[in-house]
Amino acid sequence: MRLTRYFLPVLKETPAEAQIVSHRLMLRAGMIKQAAAGIYSWLPLGYKVLRRIEQIVHEEQALAGHLAMLMPTIQSADLWRESGRYDAYGEEMLRIKDRSGRDMLFTPTAEELITDIFRANVSSYKDLPLTMYQIQWKFRDEIRPRFGVMRGREFLMKDGYNFDLTREDALHAYNRHLVSYLRTYERMGLQAIPMRADSGPIGGDDTHEFLVLAETGESEVFYDSQITDLKFGDREVDYDSVEQCQAVLEEFTSRYARTDETHDEAKFADVPEERRRVARGIEVGQIFYFGTKYSDALGATVQTKDGEKVPVHMGSHGIGVSRLLGAIIEASHDDKGIIWPEGVTPFHCGIVNLKQGDEEADAACEALYKALTAAGLDPLYDDRNERAGGKFATMDLIGLPWRITVGPRGLKNGVVELTSRRTGESEEMPPEAAVARIVEIYAAHRG
User: Fold this and answer.
1) N or C end of the chain: which has fewer CB within 10 A?
2) Would you kindly state where each structural domain of the chain is located, as residue ranges?
3) In sequence order, what are the beta bridge partners of 213?
4) Distance (Å, rounded) from C-alpha 339 to C-alpha 323?
5) What is the pTM of this model?
6) Which CATH number among 3.90.1150.180, 3.30.930.10, 3.40.50.1980, 3.40.50.720 corresponds to the domain 18-337?
7) How far is the CA of 52 from the CAs of 73, 279, 290, 440, in angstroms?
8) Containing H/E element for 146?
């Protein structure tokens, strides 16, 4: 993409309403614009990152054997009355009426709807196990929407639901999701710690939240510092293997890590003092096992091989797709702007022309742009007639991981400058070598 043809309304000043780093930088980088309290328009740059994150989630869900679907954003209140949650959910649920006076609601979560789909179509144990998920917009009428996309009212969320014959099968699905989520977050450049949590209005006794440590986190967290040394890495896990998934769960949850809702001071005291940590965390996902809570209420049963009808065991699993943008920025920025990890960057590389209009510099930039594009990458070429300082400031603000700087002086020596946004280190090399280096970096990242 050429910057002269792109819509990138960057701001020099920080809007007064921005209270935390991610909100400030998303507004300044032209990623979002507020439409109403807690509701945002996603501008081209923000939308590209949103789609990058969404794609990683889809890929990891497919690897785990989960099936993508899509449910409506507006639901009938009837199912929620049937489950008993319509009145119990609270004022966060946006309740509306259609033109016929029927009670409707804007989806905050979809346990009832997915259970209704299941009970209408599945009746035999032979069709189990089954896990389906969607990535869909949700609405929760927060009493105090703030912090940009971190605590908005409208948000994009992955919500998945498993149906299993037995408790043991459902707990394997729970463990499988934990493994899948660890892989998902690491691909985004995040370390998300699974912590024992409170189930809230979803219900159930088994639940873990995934939290990214950040000073602006809404939750107070207590953990053993050893857990931050754990990495999922390149390990291969067979999602069908109960033993392998259980081993990963035990490795990542055996050390103390809890949110303030479930914190146990006595158990925390058992952690060696030098390893005890108290910090703030941003929730970016949660997994639940809630047994037969919804299948009992909504009559979701299957026939066993002995002919007995039994309620299915269920769980749900969520990832805050839009919230992840804020979490990534909170975890990866400096005083100049955002620093995108390679897995979610909106553009793979920036090209800065130090002397727009110079015949040799223009030609070199065009050649770099075409070579990177031909290699399957998505570069952003700053071809504006703008001073060099302004171009560098824009690149630093929007946070592309790599920048190639092209100028007449370097070209006389046959070189361009390749700069890492994260480290600030620069290296001069021939243009062809810079392209090869960028291609190599992303090939390694894709694994």
Assistant:
1) C
2) 18-337, 347-446
3) 281
4) 17
5) 0.94
6) 3.30.930.10
7) 22, 29, 31, 20
8) none
What is the CATH topology of the domain spanning 347-446? Answer: Rossmann fold (3.40.50)
Q: What is the pLDDT of residue 203?
A: 46
The neighbouring-strand residues paired with 302 are: 310
Give CA–CA dist 113/118, Å, rounded: 9
Q: Which H or E run includes 442?
A: helix 431-446
pLDDT value at residue 202: 47
Q: How far apart are CA 225 and CA 279, in angstroms?
A: 11
Mean pLDDT over 37-51 rounds to 97
Spatial CA neighbour of 186 closest among 71, 41, 331? 331
Q: What long-range pairs does 10-13 form, CB within 8 A, spacing at least 24?
A: 10/394, 10/397, 10/398
- Give the tokens for residue 11: 């701001």
Q: Where are the beta strands (DSSP E) in 184-321?
A: 193-196, 206-213, 219-224, 257-259, 276-291, 301-303, 309-311, 313-320
CB 111 within 8 A of CB 202: yes
Give yes or no for a contact between 430 and 371, defined as CB atoms under 8 angstroms apart.
no
Contact 140, 92 (CB under 8 A): yes
Six-digit token string for 410? 């370097």
Dist. CA 292–CA 131, nearest whole Å: 15
CA–CA distance from 182 to each of 94, 118, 248, 376, 380 (Å)? Answer: 32, 28, 10, 27, 30
pLDDT at 143: 86
